[in-house]
Write a structure and sequence with these properties.
Layout lengths: L1 E2 L11 E2 L4 E3 L2 E3 L7 E5 L6 E6 L3 H16 L1 H5 L2 H17 L1 H12 L3 H22 L7 E2 L10 E10 L2 E5 L5 H14 L3 E5 L6 H12 L7 E3 L4 H10 L3 E7 L2 H11 L5 E5 L4 E5 L5 H13 L9 E7 H17 L18 H16 L3 E4 L14 E4 L6 H4 L6 E7 L5 H6 L3 E2 L1 E5 L3 H10 L4 E4 L14 E2 L2 E2 L6 H6 E10 L7
Parallel strand pairs: 9-10, 9-12, 10-11, 12-13, 14-15, 14-20, 15-18, 17-18, 20-21
Antiparallel strand pairs: 1-2, 3-4, 5-6, 7-8, 8-24, 13-23, 16-17, 19-22
Helix pairs in contact: 1-8, 3-5, 4-5, 5-6, 10-11
Bound molecules: nicotinamide-adenine-dinucleotide.
Nicotinamide-adenine-dinucleotide binds next to helix 8 and helix 9.
């Protein structure tokens, strides 16, 4: 660990991670040392530090350690309450280092400091405690009667939920420490062991988390952290025969390649992928809530949220008022450093991502969309992009079909209510949606018809660890959180017994 050199005055104290991997309970250097990845500050483009680009042999070591731990008497014999206690220990350590972790996350990912403090770190701590509680709540079923069982004896059967085994967790860059916990905490709670690979774009808080895990008393190998590129370290995890499941969050394209590669070893997979979620505003909506709600749905975290409300579908009678209101908010948002409390829009994660956003906006304009706010990159050194509102966007346009993952909303006028459901569902994605209306009947009827893993009514982007989360269609496979997490990290086993001596008791 070291303090950051030349730290600007507005930045709270930041402890950088050592850059070592967590393998078999130790913080170690990678084997084929020398190849490093530079962590860049998205707000300035400056190098923060570098960390290892692990090769297949480091991933093999990590998986070997996770497998040995999983098979060990210590792990197999550990009381569920004690697995929960490990997560609670880690929650206490994260809580103790909360401000430092929040600042590191903001530095590495460009997320606003008040957001990483209030949301990312809170989610991380809550996630650890939520799953700590689950560890001791795993039950099976008792099967009392089965007409297919032979009649010559008495049979009884029950089911158990068994941990799947070694989990390979792979995470994206938009919610780094929260996503790491989203994979690690349920894996441990449900009795699995885990190897986690964070995104090469934002690995620092996961590396720092590894240092806290090393302090928290986990058995060696229960949690391992390797860093590196997706095509190398990520692919090695997906290919490894001892990894029984991949818990992935990231883009749909990567999810597809992971699904295909997993077939070779018949791995279980959960895929939390991209989105193109509609924000639907009906004419009877409370516009004082709907307009800021629609703006927050897309501009929060500079649009780098999988559930961002990136398609704005608005009924004709209020279309102009809504667009004017959202554009006014967009124009008023202040771009700047994540450490400046006046900043409302931080940078995008990389220059590549900003170029992608900018290219898609240009494509939209070329295809006939009207820019009514933004449409340009920020002026400063950071990789900012101005919050952008595109009007008159039609379903066939590239901006309407592709996930932009930036602060860009595409608005479409609804002239006939019968268009709402087909338009909302006219996307390969199906992650989330929000409906803004004062009419309860319309809210619930529409919610049933929208193809999405989550539908919000008069709100957007509200996650809860107790609500199942995941996508339909190209937005993913399986669910995380809530009772669904049990299914994601365990497999049922049926145990059937034949009882002899049934006639002995009369
Ligand atoms: P990405 O797919 O480029 O990368 C995600 C992770 O996959 C990274 O760790 C990367 O190194 C790894 N990876 C890349 N290629 C791989 C391969 N061939 N094999 C194994 N691993 C590989 O995604 P990103 O750009 O980091 O994140 C943004 C995307 O994530 C967006 O599409 C967003 O919608 C999605 N996302 C989804 C959710 C959700 O819960 N549904 C949440 C956050 C982000």
């Amino acid at each position: 660990m070291s303090q950051l050199d030349n730290q600007p005055a507005t930045m709270p104290p930041i402890t950088l991670p050592s850059g070592r991997l967590l393998l078999d309970g130790e913080l170690v250097e990678p084997r084929g040392a020398g190849r490093m990845i530079d962590a860049l500050d998205p707000a300035t483009g400056n190098k923060i530090m570098s960390f290892p680009a692990c090769r297949r042999e480091d991933v093999d070591r990590a998986v070997g350690a996770a497998h040995r731990c999983f098979e060990s008497k210590t792990w197999q014999g550990m009381r569920p309450l004690d697995r929960g206690r490990l997560l609670e220990n880690l929650a206490l350590l994260v809580e103790k280092h909360r401000d430092e972790l929040a600042a590191l996350e903001s530095l590495d990912s460009g997320k606003l400091l008040f957001v990483t403090r209030a949301i990312d770190l809170q989610f991380t701590i809550d996630g650890l405690r939520y799953f700590a509680g689950w560890a001791s709540k795993i039950t099976g079923e008792y099967v009392t009667h089965n007409p297919l069982m032979p009649e010559d004896a008495v049979y009884r059967a029950y089911t158990q939920r068994r941990p799947i085994g070694v989990i390979g967790g792979i995470t994206p860059w938009n919610f780094p420490i929260g996503q790491a916990i989203q994979k690690i905490a349920p894996a441990i709670a449900f009795g699995c062991t885990v190897v986690l690979k964070p995104s090469e774009e934002s690995s620092l808080t996961t590396l720092r988390l590894g240092e806290l895990i090393a302090e928290a008393g986990f058995p060696a190998g229960a949690v391992n952290i390797v860093t590196g590129y997706g095509a190398e370290a990520g692919a090695a995890l997906v290919d490894h025969p001892l990894v029984r499941k991949i818990a992935f969050t990231g883009s749909t394209a990567t999810g597809q390649s992971i699904l295909a590669a997993s077939a070779k070893t018949m791995k279980r997979v959960t895929l939390e992928l991209g989105g193109k979620s509609p924000t639907i505003i009906l004419a009877d909506a409370d516009l004082d809530r709907a307009i800021p709600g629609a703006a927050a749905a897309i501009f929060s975290n500079s649009g780098q949220i999988c559930t961002a409300g990136s398609r704005l579908l608005v009924e004709d009678a209020i279309y102009d008022a809504v667009l004017e209101g959202v554009a006014k908010i967009a124009d008023g948002l202040q771009l700047g450093s994540p450490f400046d409390m006046a900043t409302q829009i931080g940078p995008l994660i990389s220059m590549r991502q900003r170029d992608k956003v900018s290219g898609l906006v240009d494509a939209g304009v070329a295809e006939g969309a009207q820019v009514i706010a933004g449409g340009v990159a920020g002026n400063g050194a950071g990789w900012h992009y101005r919050p952008t509102v595109l009007a008159d966007v039609t379903p066939g346009m590239t901006v309407m079909r592709e996930e932009i993952f930036g602060p860009v909303v595409c608005a479409t006028r609804i002239t006939d209510r019968a268009q709402i459901v087909p338009l909302a569902n006219d996307t390969p994605f199906g992650l989330a949606a929000s409906i803004w209306t004062r009419n309860l009947d319309h809210a619930h009827l529409l919610a049933e018809r929208i193809e999405a893993g989550t539908v919000w009514l008069n709100t957007h982007n509200v996650l809860d660890l107790a609500m199942p989360f995941g996508g339909t269609k190209m937005s993913g496979l399986g669910r995380e959180f809530g009772t669904e997490a049990v299914h994601a990290f365990t497999e049922p086993k049926a145990v059937c017994m034949r009882l002899e001596g049934v006639h002995d008791f009369g």
